[in-house]
């Protein structure tokens, strides 16, 4: 009968509406699950990125500290070596000054000796021995 057909039709329409509501509920749950999973993935990735940055900064700082330590050691060695070289130069200069002083003292002794010898020759009226003059000839 027509009434039964209307009833069946209404039931089918109601079932279709219920099925659509159920489908929308499921789609909504899937969307919520997807967004939750994506959010978790983002959080994990951000956490790992933060860990990587922290690791990188720690390693860089260690390398830079090692570099500074090496540079300080090299600067210290350079300063020590420069000091050694200055000391050597000072010793060479001192030795040269001593040698110059010896030469100058010897020259003064010889000048006095020759002045005294010349004074003796003048007072006696003699001349120096021939062998002495050969040094100048």
UniProtKB/TrEMBL annotation:
Keywords, alphabetical: Coiled coil
Q: Which residues form a coiled coil?
A: 60-113
In its keyword annotation, does this UniProt entry include Coiled coil? yes
Q: Which Pfam families match?
A: Remorin_C
Q: Where is the Remorin C-terminal domain?
A: 26-130
According to the record, the segments passing through the membrane are none
Task: Give the family from UniProt.
Answer: Belongs to the remorin family.
Query: What protein name is recorded for this chain?
Result: Remorin C-terminal domain-containing protein
């Amino acid at each position: 009968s027509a009434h039964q057909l209307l009833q069946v039709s209404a039931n089918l329409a109601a079932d279709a509406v219920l099925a659509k509501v159920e489908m929308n509920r499921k789609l909504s749950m899937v969307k919520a699950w997807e967004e939750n999973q994506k959010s978790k993935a983002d959080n994990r990735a951000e956490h790992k990125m933060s860990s990587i940055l922290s690791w990188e900064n720690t390693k860089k700082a260690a390398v830079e500290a090692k570099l500074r330590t090496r540079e300080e050691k090299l600067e210290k060695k350079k300063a020590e070596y420069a000091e050694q070289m200055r000391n050597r130069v000072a010793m060479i200069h001192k030795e040269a000054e001593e040698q110059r002083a010896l030469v100058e003292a010897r020259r003064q002794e010889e000048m006095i000796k020759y002045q005294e010898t010349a004074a003796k020759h003048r007072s006696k009226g003699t001349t120096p021995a021939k062998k002495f003059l050969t040094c100048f000839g």
